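Continuing the series of single-chain predictions for the mutant panel. This is the parent chain; the variants come on the following pages.
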Amino acid sequence: MPIVVTPAGDQTKDTEVSDSTYRGLVSQVESGQATSVTPREPDADDKMSLWDVVDGTQMRPIPMSTAMVMLRALVSKCSACTWTTAYHGQVAQHVVQVREFADKHKRARLKPVMQGRDAYMQCTGCGELFNVRKGIPDKHLRRMKAEGETHTFAIQEVVMRRYSQIQGQIIELGRMDAAPALKRSVAGANR
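Parent structure:
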C-alpha cells in the first residue's frame, strides 16, 4: 500500500493509505481541490516519481536507474494537441491525417445499425460502430470536427523531454515548422 507524506505542524508524517484512497488524493490534485500529494514508498531512497509533461500525470515511484533513462527520453509533439511520437518528422503526417479525418467528418452523421439483437450507431464519416447507450458517438463526431479546427493553423513539431522531476516543467529542445513537410507531402500526393 502507498505511503503518503502529509504535513503535521512544522514537520511531516508518513501515512499509509489504500490504493483507492491514493487514487482519490491524486484526483483531488488533478481537479484543483488539493495542492499536492507526495507519495513515498518504504524504500523511497532508491526510487523516484516522475511527471509526464505531455499529459500532466504523475507516475508511481520507479527505480532510480529506470527514472534516469526516462528523464533523457525525447519526443516530437504536435503543438496543437498532445499527440507525440518518438520519430522526427511524423508530426506533419499526423496533421495531414487529422485534417483528412476532419474533412471526412464535416457532413458526417450517425445512423442506427442493428447487428443481431444489438443496436449500434455508425459514423458515416469513417464507418466506425459505437454502442448506442454510452453517448460516445456524439463525442466522436464533436472530437473529429474540433481536432480539424485546431489543426488548421501553423502547426509546429515540438522536440521535448517527455518526463520531468518537477510538475509542469517543460524542457523544449526545439521547434520546427511542420508546414514545409506538409507542403512536400501534398505536392507528392498531387503528382
